[in-house]
Records
---
Amino acid sequence: MKRELSVDGQLIKRGESKVIDLNIARLVSGTAIDLPIYVYRSKKPGPIILLSGGLHGDEVDGIEIIRRLIRAKTFKNLKRGSVIAIPVLNIYGFLNFSREVPDGKDVNRYFPGNKTGSLASRVAYNLTKKVLAEIDFGIDFHTGGANRYNYPQSRFAPNDSKAREIAAIFNAPISLESNLIDKSLRKEAYKMGKSIVVYEGGESMRFDELSITEGIRGAKRVLSHFGMIEEEIPVQNHTFCSKSQWVRARRAGLFHPALKSGEWVDQNDVMGYLSDPFGSKPVRIKAPDSGIIIGHNNAPLVNQGDALFHLGTLNH
Ligand SMILES: [Zn+2]
C-alpha cells in the first residue's frame, strides 16, 4: 500500500482529514467554482477508496448517498486506509441541474481528458490526474436518466475480477456485467489498474429512498469488509444478471406498465400496455425472455422504439 496520499498537491498525513477545493475553471461571470473533495486518512495503512457521485450533475441519489455518509461521520476515525469522498464530481452540471457541463458535453465521455481542452475534458483531466491516480479502487454512484428508473444495481466489466469482487461485497439487490464504454471514467480507471464499480439506482432529479438506502448500505459493506469501519451491514439476497436487454415500444402512445422494477417475469408475460388516446384496444407488451426487471420508464407518453423496461437475464 502507498505511504503518501496527496490530492491536488496537498499532502494528507496519517490520521488527518481534509477538504480540498479543486479549482478547474471559472464561470462566465468570472466566479471561481471549486470542486470539494473530502479526504479521510486513518493512522493505519489500508486501501484508498473513492466514493463519488454527481458525475452527471442531475443524478441526485448518488449525491445524496455521499452527503449522508459524510453527514453521519461514517469516515471519521477510519480504522485503516483512506476514503476520498466526492459528492458532486460534475459541479458545473449540478449548478445547472443538468447531466452535462454547461457546454452540453457529458464528462463521462471525455476521460482521461485534456488540460487545455473543453470544460468536460478539463474536469475529466483533473479527476484522472488528481483523484484516480491516488486511489486503489472506487464506487461511482449514478442513477437512471430523466423518467428512467434503475432498480438498485451494481455494474462491473466482465473481465475485471477486482470490480466483480467489490460488487459482490457491495451486495446491491442486483448486479450486472456491463462492458466498459470508451472515454468513461470507469474505462480510464481500469486502464490505470483501478477498478471502479458503478452503482445505479433511481432516476435523475428525483430522490428514491430505496436507491439511497441501498447505496449507503453497500458502501458500508465495502468499508467494513476491508476493516475500515466497525459497523456491519447484514448480507441480503442478490441476483446476478449476465446480460440485459431493452424491451421497446412497438408503437407510440400512452404507456401503462403492469409491472415495475425488481419484479420477475417469465417469457411472454404481459409487462404492460400501449394505447392510443381514443379508446382503441390497448396493445400488450410481452416479455421477450424470462428475467428480472432492472429498470423501467416512468414516462406516460412514449414514441415508437422508446425503451420501456430494462430486463436482466440469467444463464444465457
Ligand atoms: Zn450517470
---
Amino acid sequence: MKAALIGMGVIGKVHRDVLREQGIELAAVCDVLPERREGAKRGYDDYREMILRESPDVVHICTPHYLHTEMIVFALEHGCNVLCEKPLTIHLADIDRIIAAEDASSGMLGVCLQNRYNPSSAFAKRYLVGKKIDRAFGEVRWHRDAGYYASGEWRGRWATEGGGVLINQAIHTVDLLQWLCGDPTDVTGSMQNISLKGVIEVEDTAHLHMEGETPCELFATNTAKEDHPAKVKVVTEGKTLEIYPDRALLDGEPVHPEREDGWYGKRMYGKGHSALIAHFYDCVSKKEKFPLDGREGSRSVRTVLIFYDKCRRGM
Ligand SMILES: NC(=O)c1ccc[n+]([C@@H]2O[C@H](COP(=O)([O-])OP(=O)(O)OC[C@H]3O[C@@H](n4cnc5c(N)ncnc54)[C@H](O)[C@@H]3O)[C@@H](O)[C@H]2O)c1
C-alpha cells in the first residue's frame, strides 16, 4: 500500500506518525511550504503533479478547509482512495459534487471524523441500539485565542475556514450527536463572536437546537479560559449516558476503562486517528466499504452549513 499526503501542518504530522506506526509507506508528501516537505521520501509543491507521478493507493488530505473539495475530486477522478480531514467541505453545493465523484471513482472516500472510533463512542453506539433516546446535549468549551488564529492565514475567515467553532472544533460533537441520535429535520439557534472581534470574521460561540426524532442541543465555544473535554450527554429510558473522548459514564458510573495507548496529537482530538486510519487501510486492501464515506462524512457538515445559511439570512 502506497500513501501520499497533502498538507504537512498540525494534523498532517499526526497522519504521518500513524502511518509510520502502522508500517505503511508514505511515498510522497505535498506542501506549498518547502520546509514542511523536509525529511519526506519525495516532496511536491503541487498535489496534482504528485498524484499523477506517484499514482498512490491512498491520498491523505490534511489541508485548510477551502481546498478539500478540489483535492478530493481530483484524487478520486484519478482512481485514488482518499482519506480527507474534516470538514468534508465548506460549501453545501459541493457535497453532491463530492458524492458524485465518489460514486464514479474506482477509489473510496473516507472522512476523518475520528471521534467515532473512541472506545467511549463505540460503547455508546452499541449501548443505544434499540433504545429510545429522549434527548441529547453536546458541549464543546475550548480555548482558541488570537495566537491560534494567527497560526494559519486560512483560520478565522469565511472564505477559507468556512466558519468558526462549529465547522472546525465542534464538528466532531455534531457528528457524534447525529451518529447516535439521527439527523435533524431542522436546526435553529444563534452564534456570536464574543472574544475575538477584530481577530476573526467567524463565530467563536454558537448555541444550536437540532429538532428531529431526537431533540438535540449543542453549545460550543472557543472562548473558554482553558480546554475542557468535549462532552455528549444522552438521556435514554431513564438513564443518563455521558460520553467524553476518554471515558463514558452511565448514571455517573464509569462504563469503559481509560486507555492510555493510541494518543496522537493534542489529547482533545481523542484517540481515534490511529483506529480510523487502520480501518480505512483495511477496507481498501479488502475492497470493503468504509463506513465513514462521503455520505456519512457530510451529515454533520450539512447541518452546520444549513445553520450558517439560516443565520446569514436572519432566519
Ligand atoms: N480530525 C481532527 O481532530 C483534526 C485536528 C486538527 C486539524 N484537523 C483538520 O486538518 C486540516 C488541516 O488543519 P491543520 O491544523 O493541520 O492546518 P495547518 O495550517 O497546520 O496545516 C495545513 C498545511 O497545508 C499546507 N497547504 C496549504 N495550501 C496547500 C496546497 N495548496 N497544497 C499543499 N499544501 C498546502 C500548509 O502549508 C500547511 O502545512 C483541516 O481540515 C482541519 O480541520 C483535524
